[in-house]
Amino acid sequence: MAGLCRGQRCSSAPRFVPHDELLTNLGCKVGENGWVATDPTGATSVAGVWAAGNVVDSPAQVITAVITAAGAGTVAAIAINHYLLEEDIKHAVAKYHTAGNALSNVTEQRVAEGVLGDPSP
Ligand SMILES: Cc1cc2nc3c(=O)[nH]c(=O)nc-3n(C[C@H](O)[C@H](O)[C@H](O)COP(=O)(O)OP(=O)(O)OC[C@H]3O[C@@H](n4cnc5c(N)ncnc54)[C@H](O)[C@@H]3O)c2cc1C
Domain coordinates of the chain in residue numbers? Predict the structure, then answer.
């Protein structure tokens, strides 16, 4: 190496680069720091896409390590589960209404009174 004499050593800090092509190709926004942006649950800017660990967090690569990446993955998994449940419910309600099963106002009131009691004083 130029400028170094025998017996001398040279070291340099590595520059971490995320392998985030999968996310960026899906359209996930990248933050000012150059890493795919996520909210605290790991949700990216694309609905239904979460990311966690090294791919979105430069310090996690060396400072906070596996445990942080695993924790972020767990938080993302919980959020994904909630998202899928919400989507299932939306689909089920839409399917129910499409099949012409929507409750009439009268039926809805009867059901509400059955559950909550008669609202009249
Ligand atoms: C030099 C170095 C030393 C470290 N030493 C330690 C240590 O001693 N202890 C410690 O706790 N942590 C250590 N870490 C940190 C630790 O490695 C990371 O925090 C952890 O691996 C992050 O896990 P991850 O699942 O986010 O990413 P990764 O472990 O990198 O896993 C991502 C996986 O996704 C795969 N992948 C990427 N793109 C695609 C794609 N398009 N399709 C399918 N698969 C894809 C990759 O091949 C990879 O297998 C070290 C890190 C470095 C760089």
Answer: 21-115
